[in-house]
Design a protein that fits this description.
By secondary structure, the protein is α/β, with parallel strands linked by helices. Helix content is about 45%, strand content about 15%. It is built from 8 helices and 7 strands, in the order E-H-E-H-E-H-E-H-E-H-E-H-H-H-E. The protein has a 7-stranded parallel sheet with strand order 3-2-1-4-5-6-7, sandwiched between helices. Strand 1, helix 1 and strand 2 form a beta-alpha-beta unit. The chain is globular. The N and C termini lie far apart (about 40 Å).
Length: about 250
Amino acid sequence: MHPFSLEGKTAIVTGGSRGIGYGIARGLIDAGARVIITARGERPLNEAAASLGANCIARTCDNADPAAIAAMVESAWQLGPVDILVNNAGISPYYKRVEHVTVEEWDSVVDVNLRGTYFASVEFAKRAFDAGTSASIINVSSVSGVVPLARLGVYAATKAGVQQLTKVMALEWADRNVRVNAIAPGWVETDFTGDLFASRHGESLRADVPMGRLATPEDIAGAAVWLASDAASYVTGSIVVIDGGRQLR
């Protein structure tokens, strides 16, 4: 079998109904995996699953709710062993200086991006431990967790936290054959960033990317396929930055 093949493997992709998550789900399916995508909105989730084809299953899940995450992971494992978890679900609804962030805004971003990633990883890993199977967890972080980006303080804090959790989980779970890595994208052209890049900030943000363009979800999906595959069987605790050189500024 080709080392990048995911034939016979099953993956969960949280936040898989659009943007980066949808692109990663497509990449995993194209590599041979069966994929379970999750999101809060049932209608767009089901539409995304239908467009991804017969090897995709939809499961609604609110990534801010640990109980919902546990139920979703249990539901996925009832279909059979799950080999791959991609923690992609995340929000960044606030583009403002840190002194203007409210308690409610802080909590909403932390609950989805950091707490959700933590509990999804733990629920998934516990089942892999019990089954005695090897597994790959891929956390979608951000270049903002590596270098500071103005007006994204709360988001950046959660993504830096995701990267440190990635390393700790990789360290603690390596002897139980659960690899944990993170992808740190820069600016990606999705509906998630559309309003920001259409605003007065868009031109300067684009100009700050040395490669001169935004990423596409497909640019991110290739790294996810690699980290999920046997080609990365000796890779754990790594943060793969995919940002067109933005971190070098």
